[in-house]
Amino acid sequence: MRFIWTTFRKDWRRRWRNPLEILVWVGIPLIVGLLIVLAFGGKGGPRPQAHVLVADQDDSFLSGLLVGALSQEAAGGFIRAEPVEEAEGRARMEKGGATALVLIPKGFSQAVLREEPASLALVTNPSERILPGMVEEGLSILVDGSFYVQRLIGEDLRRFADGPPAAADTFDDETIAAFSAKVNRLAAELKGYLSPPILRLETSVDRKEGDGLSPGFLLLPSILFMAILFMAQGLSDDVWEEKTRRTLRRVVCSPQPVSAFLLGKTLASAALVFIVSLVALSAGYGYLRLSPATFPAALVWATLSGTMLVAAMTALQLFVSSQRAGNIVSLAIVFPLMMAGGSFFPFESMPSWLSAIGKRTPNGWALEKLKEIVLGRADASGFAASLAMVAAVIALLLWISSKRLNHGFAQD
Predict the structure, then answer these.
(1) CA within 20 to 30 Å of 126's CA: 24, 59, 213, 394, which one?
(2) Does an H or E element contain 82, and which?
(3) In this structure, are residues 331 and 233 in contact, taking their beta carbons and an 8 Å threshold?
(4) In terms of Cα–Cα distance, which of 71, 191, 79 is closest to 137?
(5) How far apart are CA 78 and CA 89, in angstroms?
(6) How does DSSP classify residue 80?
(7) Strand ranges (DSSP E) for 1-74?
């Protein structure tokens, strides 16, 4: 045990003499996660919104209703209307400062009420392709709505457009009451067509794996295991550093077992994996507001499975002919594992056949287990069995590595 502890301290101190390397490992999941958040506009992703400038030259009640119809609330959040003067609006459109400019001419209200020709001028931003079409479609819906309103109550609207009778400032109570009663009857007659709609839509959802999970949650395990794989590749190269310094030869010739030396190095690597996992999971849990009850199990799993990947990459390094060949082989393995194992793309976005292959890779299997733990779907017995399996694999890899060290690698 003393030799294991001494080896652990030696590796731990050596690593902390190069803090930049540790900062890079810690920073990989944080930086990649931040870039993804910025690229997708935050937790909920980007929401398209058209910025519409409205020059209201009519300044009437009806034109005010049109501006309100183009407001953010009325348009479902897809359009944001801003009242401006015509000159200012055209100047801002020339600079590409908005999606569209709507010009409401003087006399617009009277023309609509009397069902006379009226024109709305729409100036769109040529640098935008989708949002201007949304604005144009929204205005066409308003035009269609005006047509049907005229068919229903056009006569009354034209009477109101002419204003109150001579020598009167307002309409008499009978006229207002008759109009209100007519509108009420129309609403009752049209209720069967408008609410509920005459078409009933029945839907059924064929749920797939990952449905209902936020993109941020799906990417959290992927980013973490990307960082762990980079760590495994970097930490495994340390055996060549030990060989260059002739440390391995002295260990093989010493009375201490080689397995104790490898165990000490593995524990030092596990401590580094623990630090990276702690930082990445803390940031992910905090940002995504995940249940803290699953945090300890997730941290234990990420640390142990990450240590397994380090042990596997270390064993691989012991069977290549040179440090350069080890770097080439390890990189040739790490990147395909990232691609297929869900680090670059979540399994939920992959074709089913590729996802099935990826989940059978070591990092893909560990990644899926981490998702189950974070979601609270992992039962205690299954979690314990998985931990025991990973521990057994680590022990097997250490045994293979010790055999290789005892049979030639240190002397090659």
Answers:
(1) 59
(2) strand 79-83
(3) yes
(4) 79
(5) 20
(6) E
(7) 50-56
Rounded CA-CA distance 94/88 in Å is: 10
Residues whose CB falls within 8 Å of the CB of residue 184, separated by 6 or more in sequence, listed in order = none
CA distance linking residue 280 with residue 278, whole number of Å: 6
164: helix, strand or coil: coil
Cis peptide before 196 (omega within 30 of 0): yes
Do 11 and 268 form a contact (C-beta atoms < 8 A)?
yes
> Nearest CA to 371 among 167, 181, 151, 219?
219
Query: Which uninterrupted H or E stretch holds 401?
Result: helix 380-404
Rounded Cα distance between 325 and 320, Å, is 6
CA distance 34 to 46: 15
Residue that the structure tokens 């109009």 belong to = 179
Query: The tokens 């060290």 sit on which residue?
Result: 405
Higher pLDDT, 35 or 76: 35
For residues 69 and 56, what is the distance between their CA atoms, to the nearest angstrom? 13
Q: CA 85, CA 62: separation in Å to the nearest integer?
A: 18
324: enclosing H helix or E strand: helix 323-340
Kindly report the number of other CB atoms within 10 A of residue 158's CB atom.
15
Measure the CA–CA gap between 28 and 228, rounded to whole angstroms: 9
Name the nearest CA neighbour of 62 among 16, 111, 134, 133: 111
User: What is the 3 state secondary structure string of 188-245?
Assistant: HHHHHHHCCCCCCCCCCCCCCCCCCCCHHHHHHHHHHHHHHHHHHHHHHCHHHHHHHC
Q: Give 74-100 pLDDT, tens digit per residue.
A: 445 577 788 889 899 889 988 888 888
For the CA atoms of the chain, what is the radius of gyration? 35
User: Could you tell me how many residues make up the chain?
Assistant: 412
Residue 33, C-beta contacts closer than 8 angstroms, at least 6 positions apart: 219, 220, 223, 280, 283, 284, 287
- Note whether 82 and 54 are within 8 A (CB): yes
**115-143 per-position pLDDT tens digit:** 788 888 888 888 887 888 878 887 787 77
Query: Global pTM?
Result: 0.58
Q: How far apart are CA 387 and CA 366, in angstroms?
A: 10
Q: Is the pLDDT of residue 152 over 50?
A: yes
Long-range contacts of residues 113-121, Cβ cutoff 8 Å, at least 24 apart: 113/62, 113/157, 113/158, 113/160, 113/161, 114/157, 114/158, 114/161, 115/150, 115/154, 115/157, 115/158
- How many other CB atoms sit within 10 Å of the CB of residue 125? 21
